[in-house]
Amino acid sequence: MKIYFAEQDVANAICVYAADLEGIRPESVQIEFQFDEDAGVSCQVSANHRNVLYDEQQISDAIGFYLEEIHRFSSYAMEIIIGFDEEDGITSEISFIYS
Predict the structure, then answer these.
(1) Contact 29/18 with Cβ under 8 angstroms?
(2) Are 16 and 62 in contact (CB under 8 A)?
(3) What is the number of H-type helices and E-type strands within the chain?
(4) In degrees rounded to 5, what are phi and psi of residue 95?
(5) For the segment 16-29, what is each residue's pLDDT rounded down to a tens digit?
(6) Which runs of E-coded beta strand occur in 6-88?
(7) Is the pTM of this model over 0.85?
(8) 3 CB contacts (<8 Å, ≥6 apart)?
(9) How far apart are the C-alpha atoms of 95 and 82, rounded to whole Å?
(10) By C-alpha distance, which of 56, 45, 39 is closest to 90?
(11) What pLDDT is recorded for position 76?
(12) N or C: which end of the chain has fewer CB within 10 A?
């Protein structure tokens, strides 16, 4: 099974993840996506008067957390690929691996 996240879905996952870490509401988190040909996708996260730069691994962690906490999927059975497209922005493809 595969799930596809559009940019807003990725943003929601990051906000829920950062809010959980900071002990605040997801609506209090602000993010700004960035893409660099060499560095790939990253995200500036502002929460609780702190600014943190998430790289692709942290964005993947946020998506895994979101799917596990909100939708009850097992994050141990996921392969998460972060992508960028000029038209669609930041996207993610999540594959579920069952043994």
Answers:
(1) yes
(2) yes
(3) 2, 6
(4) -105, 140
(5) 999 999 999 999 99
(6) 30-36, 40-47, 50-54, 78-85
(7) yes
(8) 67, 93, 94, 96
(9) 12
(10) 56
(11) 78
(12) C
How do residues 23-64 score in pLDDT, each as one tens digit?
999 999 999 999 998 889 999 999 999 999 999 999 999 999
Q: Are 65 and 13 in contact (CB under 8 A)?
A: yes
For residue 10, count other CB atoms closer than 10 A to its CB.
Answer: 25
Cα–Cα dist 97/99, whole Å: 7
74 pLDDT more than 90 = no
Query: Are 17 and 29 within 8 A, CB to CB?
Result: no
What is the pLDDT at residue 99? 58
Cα distance between residue 45 and residue 42, in whole Å: 10
Could you give the CA distance from residue 14 to residue 16 in angstroms, rounded to a whole number? Answer: 6
Tell me which residue has tokens 């950062």.
Answer: 18
- Residues linked to residue 79 through DSSP beta bridges, in sequence order: 95
